[in-house]
Design brief:
heterodimer, A: 172 residues, alpha+beta, 5-stranded antiparallel sheet, two-stranded antiparallel ribbon, 3 helices, elongated, B: 177 residues
């Protein structure tokens, strides 16, 4: 064996090390999430005090609601914007715009067994939908996972007093 | 050229070649279904309205005895618009409105999930591959006694056949969702 040439064992070791280094360069990247609706701080939900928090404070904390609905009303609610992959998930289109009709009675039902509902009661509604995920990239494979999640906030407001009387928050 | 350098050339070439092509596997979920365990937890005659609302959130629509029609929103995150449906359609799930009495209330839930699975090869110049969409849907009718506010009965369909058309006397109405 010449001194300038590595042994077969050493060459195999170099190749294995190189392969390991390449494999180790695999990484996990967050996929840019898109958010639609009203982005609000979930921590702010805990600061709503039924019987005390005012409409002005709700607006200051969460912005204008996406919809306000009362008994017997059907209101328009903006639809979320979501991603629909059309080619192995790497390319895709964003679908947004439009609105759907929400029955106010269905929202009021959230509070019906906790409050005596009156004509002055309205439900203020906020929601935010996030679309995001991860892509794991290794030597020869990229695995992508993407999904949507929605946070919704319903606040029962007495329009006569301008006070929030009850709150329901939900994540899914 | 020395020995070690020459042995590194094919290795580098192989790595470059590999770096230019990646197999892509993707799974994209939009929306969500009603969690199965929450549907299984419903007990006719025992579960309260509060427990239903805590578990499932507000219904898509609520239907009471005296209503003629109900506007049902389209489902899924991309929902847009809605359909006017005869109120009787909801009560027919449980044997008809007249049989159920004036205190009958129906909560109707409907959820949609779109799962897109794809695979292919990604090159620096583009992607070759295919994907397929899998639509899944939940429909849940919950009959509640408006006196006791307990669940009287419920019907759950997942990926089942489409709902039946409206009764013949409502034939002029749009098809139910």
């Amino acid at each position: 064996m010449s001194p300038g040439r590595p042994s077969r064992t050493r060459r195999a070791g170099i190749a294995a090390t190189a392969a390991l280094l390449v494999a180790a360069t695999g990484c996990v990247l967050p996929l840019g999430g898109k958010r639609s609706g009203r982005a609000f701080d979930a921590g702010g939900v805990g600061r709503i005090v039924p019987g005390t928090t005012t409409k002005a404070e709700l607006f200051a904390s969460f912005g204008a609601p996406m919809a306000v609905a009362g008994a017997g009303e059907n209101v328009e609610v903006p639809a979320a914007t979501v991603h629909h992959a059309d080619e192995v998930g790497a390319n895709g289109k964003w679908f947004g715009g439009g609105s759907w009709v929400q029955q106010g009675d269905a929202w009021l039902e959230l509070f019906a067994d906790r409050k005596a509902l009156r004509d002055a009661h309205r439900v203020y509604y906020w929601s935010t939908t996030s679309d995001g995920g991860l892509v794991v990239i290794a030597v020869l494979v990229a695995i992508q996972r993407r999904s949507t999640s929605t946070r919704e906030l319903w606040v029962l407001v007495d329009e006569a007093t301008g006070i929030a009387e009850d709150v329901v928050y939900r994540e899914r | 050229v020395s020995g070690p350098r020459s042995s590194g050339v094919p290795l580098a070439a192989a790595l470059l070649l590999l770096a230019g092509c990646v197999q892509v596997v993707s799974r994209v979920r939009t929306g969500s279904l009603v969690p199965e365990e929450r549907v299984r937890a419903l007990r006719d005659g025992q579960t309260t309205r509060r427990e239903v609302l805590d578990a499932l959130g507000p219904p898509l629509v609520i239907v009471r005895h005296g209503q003629d029609t109900v506007r049902v929103p389209d489902v899924g995150l991309r929902r847009s618009g809605g359909t006017e449906v005869p109120a009787t359609w909801f009560f027919d799930r449980f044997g008809g409105r007249d049989r159920l009495g004036a205190k009958a209330v129906v909560y109707y839930y409907r959820e949609h999930e779109l799962l897109t699975k794809g695979s292919g090869l990604a090159f620096q110049s583009g992607i070759i591959g295919s994907s397929e969409d899998e639509h899944r849907e939940d429909r849940l009718w919950i009959l509640i006694d408006g006196g006791t506010w307990l669940v009287r009965a419920h019907v759950h369909e997942r990926d089942g056949p489409p709902p039946p058309p409206p009764p013949p006397d409502d034939a002029s109405e749009e098809a139910p969702p």
